[in-house]
Design brief:
Length: 455
């Protein structure tokens, strides 16, 4: 089997309070965020809380609601956890909107799973991959950069620009907001990979690969192939098999690829070759396939991701985007836009509303309507997502955190939790430190759970 790994996804959501009938937003972003998080504050006396599903919900800089999934080592768990975050935020928005209506406020809160607002501000979707600590970490990350620069032709969320009455399709909203290949900063330079050494695990054994270049994805197929393809490539690289394919100018390349929906732009490599983004991705896919065939029994979910990765590249190569136009965001969105162009009375304003609706996760979301009509393939089930709202994955450290948080909330006991620590706020300040993200069972946590009930 492919080596077991811990993954997680952090998603920042766009937020607005739009007028129902008027023209001016009745609440600014900060006011809307604080209203949205009232139930969260009531639950945990903070806008930064860990949840009984093992994940984390908080307000980030700029009044962006952010949800971080629990640690996952199974792809179905990750997909369900990611969607559970949107489900929880949708419920918070519904509660806030009921309050607005009850107070007679002409406004409605909307949340968007995208990466750019109307003013051009960017917010992100960060992927986390647990890797073994090694002295050549920087070199390992550098070897991944060409893959991460060009991955958008498969996993991009789709970027639509209207210029002079012409609609231009691109692969990624996020690509044009990146300024460095590697950096320990997140906003000042906004790198492809954030190298801050914060493993949330035993620091002698592990590091966390923090990838911040990816788009926030609506289509579950995009999320699946984004994580699974990166996971397989990482496993191959960690085994000592790197692909020597460095780009001369990664930050220029990432912008070229983003606007080149035909996939024809040649990118300059350090060895003098010129290759398209699709060719670079194809080289990575074939290397992973060959290594997998020789070394792993690829499970069904990774096999689906390999097939989708392959079909996405063929779709761009041939221009036959129907190969993936129910599974990958950029192709689904392009199909929507092209159909919209053919309608009578289509306007730029109406197009902008359609694009916002694609990413809107609040009540009546376009995503669910498209899924029900077969226009967007769903990989989770409603039952799985509902369960992921209140239950952590069974096979990782998240199980221990989720059980502790849930028990403490049910018993109304003060507690403090982060990714590693569980602390009971009693006179003894009993604390358990969980440094193994793979560890789903721990006798010390059993003792702490007993203390919750009898203290």
């Amino acid at each position: 089997m492919i080596p077991r790994r811990i993954w997680g996804i952090e998603t920042e959501y766009g937020l607005t309070c739009a007028p129902v009938a008027g023209h001016r937003p009745p609440l600014d972003a900060d006011e809307a965020a604080r209203l949205l998080f009232r139930p969260v504050v009531a639950l945990g006396r903070s806008t930064n809380v860990f949840l009984r599903n093992g994940g984390r919900l908080y307000l980030d800089v700029g009044s962006h609601p952010e949800y971080a999934t629990a640690e996952c080592d199974q792809l179905p768990d990750l997909l369900a956890q990611d969607r559970a975050g949107s489900s929880m935020l949708r419920d918070l928005a519904a509660t806030a909107n009921e309050r607005l209506e009850g107070d007679g406020v002409d406004g409605r809160i909307h949340l968007f799973k995208n990466n750019l607002d109307a003013a051009g501000n960017s917010f992100g979707c960060h992927e986390n991959y647990l890797v073994r600590r090694r002295p050549d970490f920087a070199a390992m990350v550098a070897s991944l950069v060409p893959f991460l620069v060009t991955r958008q032709v498969v996993t991009g969320g789709g970027h639509v620009r209207v210029r002079g009455g012409r609609i231009d399709m691109g692969f990624s909203q996020r690509a044009g907001q990146m300024w460095d290949a590697m950096s320990s900063a997140t906003t000042r330079s906004r790198p492809i990979v954030n190298t801050r050494d914060e493993p949330h695990a035993d620091a002698e054994l592990y590091r966390r690969l923090h990838v911040i270049v990816g788009d926030s994805n609506v289509a579950e197929g995009s999320t699946l192939v984004k994580v699974a393809a990166t996971d397989m490539l990482l496993a191959m690289v960690e085994a000592g098999h790197r692909i020597d394919m460095q780009l001369v100018d990664p930050m220029s390349a990432i912008r070229e690829v983003s606007t080149d929906i035909a996939g024809t732009a040649d990118l300059e490599l350090a060895d003098g070759r010129r290759m398209t983004a699709v060719a670079i991705q194809r080289a990575h896919l074939e290397a992973v396939r060959a290594f997998a065939a020789a070394n792993w029994d690829v499970g069904p979910w990774h096999a689906v991701a390999l097939d989708l990765w392959d079909r996405a590249l063929t779709a761009v190569e041939t221009g036959n985007h129907s190969l993936v136009d129910t599974e990958l965001d950029w192709a689904i969105k392009e199909k929507l836009v092209r159909r919209f162009e053919g309608r009578d009375g289509a306007t730029v304003v109406a197009l902008q509303r359609l694009l916002l609706a694609y990413h809107d996760i609040t009540e009546g979301a376009l995503q669910e309507r498209m899924e029900s009509r077969g226009l967007m393939r769903r990989f989770t089930t409603t039952i799985q997502v509902r369960d992921a709202v209140t239950h952590p994955p069974d096979s990782t450290r998240a199980r221990l955190r989720g059980e502790f948080v849930g028990r403490a909330q049910d018993l109304r006991r003060d507690h403090t939790v982060d990714w590693v620590h569980l602390r009971l706020a009693d006179p003894a300040h009993r604390t358990v430190m969980l440094t193994d993200p793979f560890g789903a069972y721990d006798d010390r946590v059993d003792v702490l759970l007993q203390a919750l009930a009898i203290s």
